[in-house]
């Protein structure tokens, strides 16, 4: 289930306690609309993307915000078992913890930048991460199974044809 996190404008109160942000300085001398839009862009660009963390990094993250390490396991469960990217739905965290985590982090999956479909149904996607890194993945459907090949190098692209990649796999 995907829930739109951006169903209301951000308010300065949403980011009280946010590390490194001087909200009053940022909001000074802007119209209400400009402040809302600029503040949202500013804060979203400075947040940590929790999808980039493995379990040990997630435990460090929670230790740095003063929480027990078991919170990392709970967060991983929400992200990878329940496919949840909205802290407001993570009900085994207190409301104050959800707000605190939401003020300094986000869960942003890579998005498809380009898609190519071959005649045999193989799909090649170029993805872009929240940090603007690009990588490729290929989805090959064959005889009742699906093979997903994911690039292990950011910025490297497969320039050979999909058919050749498929033959090399065999």
From TrEMBL:
<keyword id="KW-1015">Disulfide bond</keyword>
<keyword id="KW-0411">Iron-sulfur</keyword>
<protein>
    <recommendedName>
        <fullName>Dual-specificity RNA methyltransferase RlmN N-terminal domain-containing protein</fullName>
    </recommendedName>
</protein>
<dbReference type="GO" id="GO:0051539">
    <property type="term" value="F:4 iron, 4 sulfur cluster binding"/>
</dbReference>
<keyword id="KW-0949">S-adenosyl-L-methionine</keyword>
<feature type="domain" description="Dual-specificity RNA methyltransferase RlmN N-terminal">
    <location>
        <begin position="49"/>
        <end position="107"/>
    </location>
</feature>
<dbReference type="InterPro" id="IPR048641">
    <property type="entry name" value="RlmN_N"/>
</dbReference>
<keyword id="KW-0808">Transferase</keyword>
<keyword id="KW-0489">Methyltransferase</keyword>
<dbReference type="InterPro" id="IPR040072">
    <property type="entry name" value="Methyltransferase_A"/>
</dbReference>
<keyword id="KW-0004">4Fe-4S</keyword>
<keyword id="KW-0819">tRNA processing</keyword>
<keyword id="KW-0479">Metal-binding</keyword>
<dbReference type="InterPro" id="IPR013785">
    <property type="entry name" value="Aldolase_TIM"/>
</dbReference>
<keyword id="KW-0408">Iron</keyword>
<dbReference type="GO" id="GO:0008168">
    <property type="term" value="F:methyltransferase activity"/>
</dbReference>
<keyword id="KW-0963">Cytoplasm</keyword>
<dbReference type="Pfam" id="PF21016">
    <property type="entry name" value="RlmN_N"/>
</dbReference>
<dbReference type="GO" id="GO:0070475">
    <property type="term" value="P:rRNA base methylation"/>
</dbReference>
<dbReference type="GO" id="GO:0030488">
    <property type="term" value="P:tRNA methylation"/>
</dbReference>
<dbReference type="GO" id="GO:0046872">
    <property type="term" value="F:metal ion binding"/>
</dbReference>
<keyword id="KW-0698">rRNA processing</keyword>
